[in-house]
Amino acid sequence: MVRRADVRSAHAAHEKVVGRHCSIGAEYEEQIMKAAVVTDFSRPPRFMDFPDPVAHGEDEIIVYVLAAGLHPRVRSQAGGFHYTSTGELPLVPGVDGVVRDPEGKVRYAILGDTTLGTMAERTVIERGRSVVLPDTIDPVAVAAAMNPAMSSWVALRRRIDFDRGQRVAILGATGNAGRMAIQVAKRFGASQVIAVGRDPIKLDELSGLGADQTCTFDRLAPAADVDLVIDYVWGEPTAKAMVEILTNRTDRAKPLTWLEVGAIAGSDAAIPAAALRSARLQIVGSGIGSVPGRDFVEELPELAEAVGEGAFDVRARAVPLDEVEHAWTAAVGDGDRVVFVP
How far is CA 279 from CA 27, 225, 243, 249, in A? Predict the structure, then answer.
């Protein structure tokens, strides 16, 4: 659940912004644009001046940012090592966020390839890549939840044929996206969800989110007979886990889909040829490129509605944008998703 003290402070900041900038007009020209700016991929972003945004085309609009989440995808973007990176600097990171448009409507927006992200006072969005939210929505909760929830939501809806009653194992279940995946899988009708992680203490917390069983990477037998693995880990842990799960399957001829969504343990995994030849295994990736952008956009309204209704347990910590350099490197021991508020 969202930490209420942080949310109240975030709301106060939003009201201050809205009060000053209820419209984007002549006043806008006189303002100084502040943003988190990456000038060197080896260093965290710094809070500094940045050129004001300019809209191009009929669908683009300049918006005020209310909240932007610090997701792993954003860290890789700011580090220049995400597979979509162009290497262009300077760069304002941020791939999504909650914003207020010129008509005063609150929107959740996802951005395309751009050097002007959402970690700024203002940015440019495409109307067609956004969804209008109720004015009563909690911007911090939405900014924290949408990106991690979207990874499993879109993967199950758009990348594979997921059937109600299937059994699911989630590798990396103690992270934000993994925690959301438990809840999303249950929402879509999974009969059993097995949460896999390294920390037994954190795993014990996941039963409250819908996990029917938990196990660590060194004891994967309980996950051997699932129908689907949602993998946020990849790297060496996945290579070992794949072999162990396949080796312990009761029926190797029964289909197993391995859905690769994240790579927190490494971008490369040495998969033995026997893993692909000795079992009915299908490895499928889900992300930008394998899922068309229009598919992400089409899923936004239903996902945003679910988040707004409180369907998911959201862990978030609001941080002022001017503290970005410190917050970028500071460890968040409680696992909360950092959300920057201008």
Answer: 64, 12, 10, 9
